[in-house]
Amino acid sequence: MQLDCTQTQDLMIVHVRETRIDAAGAIDFKDKMRDLTAASQCRVMLDLSLVGFIDSSGLGAVVAVRKSLGPDRPLELAALTPAVEKVFRLTRMDSVFIIHRDIPARADSFRDVV
Question: N or C of the chain: less Cβ packing under 10 Å?
Fold first, then answer.
């Protein structure tokens, strides 16, 4: 699972550089997200713009990451592809996560919420 991040003082954006988050990569995804987010206490946004497919294991991994961040640090999602957005909508996870249409150009650009 290829992940990288960009970070400001207030925001860490984790970019998923894969087209799928599924059973084959779910554990690796969780482990790498834990490693990336452990050293910082800022907000975390997950860039899903390249992810065209997510299965139940992938969805479970995203939920597990959200839980691991704790109640004061929600995992925000951004740039969902239509297929991934549909999974979040059908499972009603769109009501659990803050979902942004796009990746913000600046850390204070959080007004474009779906």
Answer: C
Q: Which residue has the tokens 């910082």?
A: 40
Output the six-digit token pair for 95. 């009501």
CA 32, 107, 99 angle in degrees (round to 5)? 65
Length of the chain, in residues: 114
Dist. CA 106–CA 43, nearest whole Å: 13
In three-state form (DSSP H/G/I as H, E/B as E, the rest C), the secondary structure along 32-82 is HHHHHHHCCCCEEEEECCCCCEECHHHHHHHHHHHHHHCCCCCEEEECCCH
The upper half-sphere exposure of residue 2, i.e. CA atoms within 13 Å in the direction of its Cβ, equals 5
Q: What is the DSSP letter of 113?
A: B
Listed in sequence order, the residues at least 6 apart from 78 whose beta carbon sits closer than 8 Å to its beta carbon are 13, 45, 46, 47, 48, 49, 99, 100, 101, 102, 103, 104
Report residue 59's pLDDT band, with 50, 70 and 90 as the boundaries.
Answer: very high
User: Structure pTM?
Assistant: 0.87
